[in-house]
C-alpha cells in the first residue's frame, strides 16, 4: 500500500518547510484507485537527495568544461570505418555516423552510455562514477556482431517495469529491441514484440503519443535498397522510365520504387525526380506488444529522414512529431489529432524549413513556457566555407521559390508564439550557419537559467566542396579511399538571457574541437547537477567533457504510475524569483542520439525555488513549493486517476480579432523576372506594393478605403456601409500601372476627397507612360474620374510614396512624391518631386517646384516613404524622408523653402528604411518618430565599423554596369554573392579565378582582388550601417537619439506602422506589419515574423506583445497598414489577401477628436494639437496626409488618457492660426476652425 502523504513531509522535513499539492480525483465517480496495479507503490511523492560533488562552494578555474580522455577512463570506443563493398555506397550518408544514448541500465543512479557505429559493433559502458567506465556489452547480452551496421539507439522502459530497455536501429540489419531483466542484462525480443523492422533505420524516437501510459515508437528511416548491387539502385533515368500516372492523375513512382525515388512539382514543367527514403514506421505500444500503424495514423512520409523529434508544438499536451528530411524532401510536422492520427501542419505553421535537414531539438529558449525548436542544415559558418560550398544554384532557383513551406540552406529556429504559426529567427539569433551540423543539443550548460546549445559538426568527407564537385562533373574525381574527413569545429553558443541572442563560447568553454562528430548526448554523468557531454566522433575516440559549473542548479527525476514509468512527455516547470523555466522530458534529440529522461535546471545565483510543477501525460498535476537548490528531486506520480479537470483557466481575450466581414480582396502580381535584366539584384523591385488610403469618399460618415492594384489589375475601392463592406473596382484606367502609394485628399477644394495614386515598379521600360501618376477626381458621390492631362506634371518615373501638407500656408494641400527606382538600373533612382497646388475653381493643377523650393529633393536616392511633420515646433510642416541605402533625412521648412538639417543625429544612420510615423511617445510636447527597417533576422548584419556595401559600375570593361554586394570584415572587404552567380553575370571573374579551383580562389580573395581596386573606385558606392527598426526621440530642439525597437520587432523587415493607445494606459502603442517575400532566390524570403504589437512605456521605449495576446497574426508579405475609425486595422499584402482586424478591447479611455478645417483642407491635414487633462500634459498630436509605408490612414485623432472631465485642447491650424477648446474626455467630438 502507498504511504500516506504525511510521511512524505516527514521524509523531507530535514530540508526545510516544503509544501506539496497534488490534483487527484476525489469525487468518487471514477475508477477505484485500489483496482489499478500500483507501480512504485512504496515511493513517496517527493524524495530529496543532495547533488554529489556539487562545486557550488568553490571557485571556478579554467574553462567551463574539462576534457576527459575517454580511453583511460575506460570508454575505449573508436568509431572505425573501412571502405568495402557493403559500405562504399553509404560513405556520404548518415549511416556512416555513430550515435550516443544515455540511461541508467542497472538502476544504480548513474547514467550509463551506449555507443553505436556502422562497423566494429556497438558498445555499452557502465558508469562507475567519477568519470570511470567499464565495457559491459558482452555480459549484458548485447550483440557484438561487427558486421551489423548500427545507427541510432534509445533507452526506454517499453514494458513499464521500471528498468530501461534498449532499441537499436541499423542499415540492412534487423532492428533490435533488448528487454532488460532489471539487473542490466538484455534479451532481444524485437520479433516477439512486433518490433521486427529491417531497412534503413536511422533512429528510434519514443513517446506516449496516445497517452495510454506506455511508450510508443517512431523509427526514422533514410534511403534503402535491398539489392545494393542492382545497377538501377541509383539510376534516376531508369526511375523516370518507370513513372506511371496515379489515381489522382499525377505522375509518380510505382510502389516498388517509391521508397527510392519520388517527385516534387516543378512549376510549369511537371514533376521533378528526387531521391526518396523508406517510409518511417510508427509502432504503437499495446501493453508491451507493438503494432505498426503509420499509414493508418496518417504518417506516410517518404523523405530521407535524419532525425525524428517529438515536440508538443501547440501546447495541448499531446506530442507531435517533427521529421527532418534530407535534400529536396520537405520536413514534416505531424500534429497529433488526439485520436491516434496525425496531420502534417508544416505548411500552415512553419515559415520555412532547412533544405538539407539534419539534426533537431526542442527547448524553451526564451523561458516563456512554450517549447521552441531547432532544425539544422549545412550552412558554412565562415566566409570561406560558405563560398566554397555555394555551387551553381541557378538550376535550383525554381525550387527555392516553390514549395510550402519554403526550403533554404540554413538552420531554422522556430520561436513558439502560442498561436500555432511559428516565428523563424535563426539569423537573428546567430544560429543560422553552424557548418555540417548533426546534433544540436539544447541544455543549460552554464547553469544560469537559460538554455544554451551545443552542436556537433563534420562529415566523412567534404562532399560539398564545389571545386571537387566541379571536377567530378568533368570526369575527374578523388577516389573514396583518398578522401579526408571534413573536420569542423564543434560549437557551443551561450544564451544571452532572453532567448533572442546567442554568443559563440566554444573556445571559452573548452569545447572548440575540430573533428567529424555525429551523435552527442547531454547527461549528468557525475550526479553533480550540471550537464556533461559525450560525443561520438568519426574514426576517433569518444569525446568526454566534464562540466565544472559553480552556479546553483537542481535535477528532477520522474517516476510514473499512471503515466509511463520514466515520465517521458511530462513537463516540469520551475519558478524561482523572476525566473520561470520549463522542460519536457524528451528522449530523442539531435541525430542518432538520445538524452536520459531527466530534467536539469540551472538557477544562477538563486538558491531557493518558489515552486516546482509537474504535469504528467496522464493528466495528473503536482506542485511543490519552498525548495532548495543543490538537490535531486525525485517526483512520483500520484496513485489513481487524475482529477477531473475543471474548466481551463480563462485565457485573456486578445486585443484584436480578425474581421471576417471584409470581402475576399486579393492583390495579385503578374509574373516578372527582375533578375533577367540585373542578375545580381539583391531584391525584386517589382513587388513593393500595394499602398492603402482611407477616407470618407461618399460623405456618409463612414471611412472607406482604396487598395492599390498590381500591373494588370485595377485598384479597388472598399466601400464602408457601417457594418458591411463592398469591394468595387470603380477606379478605371489603372491596370497598366503598378500602384504604390495612395492618398485621399481634396485636390480641388470642393469639399470631397479625391485620390492620388503613385505608379511604380520596374515591369515597363524606362520612360514608359505606365509610370505616370494618376489623379482621380471625386464627383462628390464617391465616383471617380481620371483628371485631364494638365493636372499633373508630365513625369514618367517609377515612384513610391505620396504625402500631403499645406507647406506654403495658402490653404490648399501640396504634395511630395518620392522617386523609387530607375527600371533596370538599381540602385539608381529618379528625382523626387515637390508639387505645389495651384488649383483654381474649375481647374486642377499641380506644379513641380522642386528645383526652386527644394532642389536637394532631386537627389534623395531610392525613397521609400515620407512624412510631413512640424519637427522643430515652429508652426510649419517640415519634411522627413526615408530611403533604401541611405539615412532618414529631415528638410526644414523655411517660409516655403527647404534645407536639409544634417546635424540632428539622424543622418549618420544609413539603412534600408521602409516607413515612418510620428507621435509624442514620451509626453514632452514634441513629436518623436518611429522608422521601420529590415531588422536583424537576415543574412546582413552591418554595423558602423562593418557596413554592408553595394557597388554599381562596369567591372568587366565592356560598358555594362553590374551590382556587386560586399561586406566589411576584419579580413577586408569581401563579396556577398558566390562565385557561380558572380562569374555568370561578370565574365571577367571566371577568367581571373582559373579553372582548377575557382571556388577556392574566389573564397580566399578580397573584393579588390576579384574586381580590381581601380574599377571599384570608379563604381558608385553605397553603405548601410543600421538595419534595426527603431525610434528617433526628439529633444524638442531638433536633436534626435536613436533607440532600437524590441527584439521581436527585428524578426523581419518592417513596413507599415500605426500609433495609438491599445492597452488603455495613456501611452502610445505601436503596431507594425512585417515580412519581405522578394529577395533574390538564394537569400530566400525574410518572413520569420507575423506582425508585432508593442505597448509604449511613455518614455519612447516599447514592450513586445506576443501574437497570442495581440490577436494580430499576419504571416504574409504585409506592406500597407492603415487604421480606420473605431480602431480597426486594414492591412495590404503583396500578392495576397487584404486583412481587417477589429478591436476587442475597451476603447472608452480614448477621446476621439475630429478637426474640421476650411474648405480646401476640410480634414485639417497638417494641424497639430496639444492636450492636457487636469493639468497633466497628455501629449502632442498631428493630423497626417500620409504616413507609414505607402499609406494614408484616418484623420481622426485618438487621445489616450486615464481620467474624466474635460480635456484642454490647443490647436495650431495648418495656416498658423491657433485656438483653444475643451472636449469631454469620454465622448470626444469635433473641433471646427474658428
For this structure, the quaternary state is: single chain
- What structural class should be given to the helix and strand makeup? mainly beta
Number of strands: 87
Mean pLDDT: 91
Strand content: 35-45%
**What is the global morphology?**
globular
Pick out the low-confidence regions. 1-18, 24-35, 55-60
Radius of gyration: 33 Å
- The count of helical stretches stands at 16
Largest sheet: 8 strands, antiparallel
What percentage of residues falls in helices of 4 or more residues?
Answer: under 10%
Rounded to the nearest angstrom, the distance between the terminal CA atoms is 88 Å
Explain what the structure shows:
- With 1234 residues, this protein is mostly beta strands.
- 7% of the residues lie in helices and 38% in strands.
- Strands 8, 9, 10, 11, 12, 13, 18 and 19 form an eight-stranded antiparallel β-sheet that branches.
- Strand 22 and strand 23 form a beta hairpin.
- The longest helix has 8 residues.
- The chain starts with a helix and ends with a strand.
- The N terminus is likely disordered.
Summarize the entry for a quick read.
This protein is mainly beta and about 1250 residues long. The protein is globular, with a radius of gyration of 33 Å.
Amino acid at each position: 500500500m502507498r504511504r500516506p502523504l504525511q510521511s512524505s513531509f516527514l521524509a523531507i522535513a530535514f530540508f526545510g518547510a516544503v509544501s506539496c499539492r497534488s490534483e487527484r480525483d476525489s469525487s468518487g465517480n471514477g475508477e477505484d484507485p485500489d483496482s489499478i496495479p500500483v507501480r512504485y507503490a512504496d515511493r513517496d511523492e517527493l524524495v530529496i537527495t543532495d547533488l554529489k560533488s556539487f562545486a557550488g562552494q568553490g571557485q571556478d578555474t579554467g574553462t567551463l568544461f574539462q576534457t576527459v580522455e575517454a580511453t583511460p577512463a575506460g570508454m575505449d570506443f573508436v568509431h572505425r570505418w573501412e571502405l568495402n563493398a557493403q559500405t562504399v555506397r553509404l560513405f556520404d550518408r548518415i549511416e556512416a555516423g555513430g550515435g550516443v544514448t544515455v540511461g541508467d541500465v542497472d538502476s544504480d543512479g548513474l547514467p550509463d552510455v551506449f555507443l553505436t557505429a556502422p562497423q566494429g559493433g556497438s558498445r555499452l559502458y557502465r558508469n562507475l562514477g567519477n568519470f570511470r567506465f567499464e565495457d559491459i556489452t558482452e555480459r549484458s547480452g548485447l550483440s557484438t556482431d561487427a558486421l551489423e551496421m548500427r545507427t541510432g539507439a534509445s533507452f526506454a522502459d517499453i514494458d513499464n517495469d521500471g528498468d530501461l530497455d534498449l532499441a537499436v536501429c541499423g542499415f540492412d540489419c534487423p532492428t533490435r529491441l533488448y528487454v532488460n531483466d532489471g539487473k542490466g542484462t538484455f534479451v532481444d525480443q524485437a520479433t516477439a514484440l512486433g518490433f521486427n523492422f529491417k531497412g534503413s533505420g536511422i533512429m528510434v524516437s519514443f513517446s506516449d503519443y496516445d497517452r495510454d501510459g506506455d511508450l510508443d515508437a517512431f523509427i526514422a528511416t533514410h534511403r534503402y535498397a535491398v539489392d545494393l548491387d542492382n545497377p538501377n539502385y541509383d539510376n534516376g533515368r531508369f526511375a523516370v522510365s518507370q513513372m506511371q500516372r496515379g489515381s489522382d492523375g499525377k505522375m509518380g513512382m510505382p510502389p516498388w520504387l517509391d521508397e527510392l525515388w519520388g517527385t516534387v512539382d516543378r512549376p510549369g514543367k511537371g514533376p521533378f525526380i528526387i531521391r526518396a527514403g523508406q517510409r518511417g514506421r510508427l509502432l504503437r505500444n499495446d501493453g508491451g506488444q507493438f503494432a505498426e500503424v503509420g499509414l493508418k495514423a496518417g504518417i506516410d512520409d517518404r523523405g530521407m529522414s535524419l532525425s525524428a523529434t517529438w515536440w508538443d508544438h501547440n501546447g495541448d499536451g499531446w506530442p507531435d512529431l517533427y521529421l527532418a528530411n534530407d535534400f529536396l524532401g520537405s520536413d514534416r510536422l505531424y500534429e497529433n489529432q488526439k485520436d491516434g492520427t496525425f496531420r502534417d501542419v508544416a505548411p500552415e505553421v512553419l515559415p520555412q524549413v532547412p533544405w538539407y535537414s539534419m539534426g533537431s531539438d526542442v527547448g524553451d529558449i526564451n523561458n516563456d513556457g512554450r517549447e521552441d525548436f531547432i532544425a539544422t542544415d549545412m550552412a558554412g559558418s565562415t566566409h570561406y566555407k560558405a563560398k566554397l560550398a555555394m555551387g551553381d544554384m541557378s538550376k535550383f532557383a525554381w525550387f527555392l521559390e516553390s514549395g510550402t513551406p519554403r526550403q533554404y540552406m540554413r538552420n531554422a529556429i522556430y520561436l513558439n508564439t502560442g498561436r500555432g504559426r511559428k516565428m523563424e529567427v535563426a539569423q537573428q539569433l546567430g544560429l543560422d550557419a553552424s557548418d555540417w551540423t548533426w546534433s544540436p543539443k539544447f541544455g543549460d550548460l552554464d547553469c544560469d537559467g537559460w538554455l544554451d546549445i551545443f552542436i556537433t559538426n563534420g562529415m566523412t568527407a567534404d562532399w560539398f566542396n564545389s571545386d571537387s564537385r566541379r571536377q567530378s562533373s568533368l570526369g575527374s574525381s578523388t577516389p573514396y579511399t583518398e578522401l579526408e574527413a571534413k573536420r569542423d569545429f564543434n560549437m557551443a553558443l551561450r544564451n544571452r538571457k532572453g532567448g533572442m541572442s546567442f554568443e559563440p563560447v566554444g573556445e571559452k568553454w573548452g569545447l572548440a574541437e575540430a573533428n567529424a562528430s555525429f551523435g552527442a548526448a547531454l547527461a549528468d554523468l557525475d550526479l553533480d547537477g550540471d550537464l556533461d557531454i559525450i560525443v561520438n566522433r568519426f574514426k576517433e575516440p569518444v569525446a568526454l567533457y566534464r562540466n565544472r559549473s559553480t552556479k546553483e542548479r537542481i535535477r528532477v527525476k520522474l517516476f510514473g504510475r499512471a503515466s509511463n514509468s520514466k515520465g517521458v512527455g511530462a513537463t516540469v516547470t520551475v519558478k524561482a524569483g523572476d525566473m520561470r523555466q520549463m522542460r519536457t522530458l524528451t528522449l530523442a534529440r539531435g541525430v542518432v542520439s538520445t538524452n536520459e529522461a531527466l530534467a536539469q535546471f540551472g538557477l544562477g545565483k538563486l538558491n531557493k525555488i518558489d515552486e516546482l510543477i509537474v504535469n504528467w501525460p496522464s493528466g495528473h498535476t503536482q506542485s511543490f513549493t519552498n525548495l532548495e537548490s543543490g538537490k535531486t528531486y525525485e517526483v512520483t506520480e500520484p496513485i489513481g486517476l487524475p482529477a477531473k479537470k475543471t474548466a481551463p483557466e480563462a485565457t485573456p481575450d486578445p486585443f484584436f480579432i480578425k474581421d471576417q466581414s471584409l470581402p475576399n480582396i486579393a492583390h495579385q502580381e503578374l509574373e516578372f523576372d527582375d533578375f533577367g535584366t540585373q542578375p545580381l539584384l539583391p531584391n525584386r523591385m517589382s513587388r513593393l506594393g500595394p499602398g492603402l488610403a482611407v477616407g470618407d469618399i461618399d460623405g456618409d460618415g463612414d471611412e472607406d478605403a482604396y487598395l492599390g492594384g498590381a500591373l494588370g489589375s485595377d485598384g479597388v475601392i472598399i466601400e464602408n456601409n457601417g457594418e458591411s463592406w463592398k469591394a468595387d473596382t470603380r477606379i478605371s484606367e489603372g491596370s497598366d500601372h503598378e500602384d504604390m502609394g495612395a492618398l485621399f485628399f481634396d485636390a480641388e477644394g470642393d469639399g470631397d476627397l479625391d485620390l492620388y495614386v503613385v505608379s511604380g515598379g520596374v515591369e515597363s521600360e524606362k520612360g514608359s507612360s505606365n509610370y505616370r501618376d494618376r489623379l482621380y477626381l471625386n464627383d462628390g458621390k464617391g465616383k471617380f474620374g481620371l483628371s485631364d492631362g494638365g493636372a499633373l506634371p508630365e513625369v514618367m518615373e517609377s515612384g513610391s510614396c505620396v504625402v500631403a501638407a499645406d507647406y506654403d500656408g495658402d490653404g490648399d494641400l501640396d504634395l511630395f512624391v518620392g522617386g523609387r527606382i530607375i527600371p533596370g538600373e538599381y540602385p539608381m533612382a529618379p528625382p523626387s518631386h515637390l508639387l505645389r497646388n495651384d488649383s483654381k475653381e474649375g481647374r486642377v493643377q499641380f506644379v513641380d517646384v522642386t528645383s526652386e523650393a527644394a532642389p536637394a529633393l532631386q537627389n534623395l536616392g531610392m525613397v521609400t516613404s515620407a512624412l510631413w511633420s512640424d519637427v522643430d515646433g515652429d508652426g510649419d510642416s517640415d519634411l522627413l524622408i526615408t530611403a533604401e541605402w541611405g539615412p532618414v533625412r529631415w528638410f526644414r521648412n523655411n517660409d516655403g523653402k527647404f534645407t536639409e538639417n544634417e546635424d540632428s543625429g539622424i543622418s549618420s544612420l544609413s539603412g534600408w528604411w521602409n516607413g515612418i510615423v510620428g507621435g509624442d511617445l514620451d509626453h514632452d510636447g514634441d513629436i518623436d518618430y518611429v522608422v521601420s527597417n529590415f531588422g536583424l533576422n537576415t543574412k546582413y548584419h552591418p554595423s558602423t565599423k562593418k557596413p554592408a556595401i553595394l557597388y554599381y559600375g562596369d567591372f568587366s570593361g565592356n560598358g555594362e554596369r553590374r551590382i556587386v554586394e560586399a561586406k566589411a570584415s576584419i579580413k577586408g572587404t569581401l563579396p556577398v554573392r558566390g562565385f557561380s552567380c558572380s562569374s555568370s553575370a561578370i565574365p571577367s571573374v571566371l577568367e581571373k579565378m582559373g579553372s582548377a579551383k575557382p571556388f577556392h580562389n574566389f573564397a580566399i580573395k578580397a573584393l579588390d582582388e576579384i574586381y580590381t581596386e581601380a574599377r571599384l573606385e570608379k563604381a558608385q558606392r553605397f553603405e548601410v550601417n543600421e538595419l534595426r527598426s527603431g525610434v528617433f526621440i526628439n529633444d524638442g530642439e531638433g536633436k534626435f537619439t536613436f533607440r532600437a525597437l524590441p527584439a521581436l520587432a527585428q524578426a523581419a523587415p518592417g513596413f507599415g506602422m500605426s500609433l495609438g493607445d491599445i492597452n488603455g494606459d495613456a501611452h502610445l502603442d505601436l503596431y507594425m506589419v512585417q515580412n519581405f517575400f522578394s529577395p533574390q532566390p538564394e537569400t530566400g524570403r525574410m518572413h520569420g515574423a507575423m506582425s508585432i504589437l508593442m505597448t509604449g512605456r511613455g518614455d519612447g521605449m516599447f514592450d513586445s506583445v506576443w501574437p497570442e495576446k495581440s490577436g494580430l497574426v499576419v504571416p504574409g508579405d504585409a506592406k500597407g497598414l492603415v487604421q480606420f475609425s473605431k480602431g480597426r486595422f486594414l492591412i495590404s499584402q503583396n500578392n495576397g489577401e487584404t486583412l481587417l482586424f477589429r478591436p476587442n478591447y475597451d476603447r472608452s479611455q480614448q477621446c476621439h477628436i475630429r478637426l474640421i478645417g476650411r474648405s480646401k483642407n476640410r480634414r485639417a491635414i497638417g494641424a497639430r494639437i496639444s492636450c492636457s487633462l487636469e493639468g497633466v500634459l497628455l501629449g502632442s498630436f498631428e493630423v497626417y496626409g500620409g504616413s507609414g509605408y505607402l499609406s494614408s490612414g484616418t484623420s481622426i485623432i485618438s487621445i489616450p488618457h486615464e481620467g474624466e472631465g474635460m480635456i484642454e485642447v490647443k490647436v495650431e491650424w495648418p495656416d498658423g492660426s491657433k485656438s483653444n477648446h475643451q472636449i469631454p474626455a469620454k465622448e470626444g467630438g469635433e473641433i471646427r476652425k474658428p
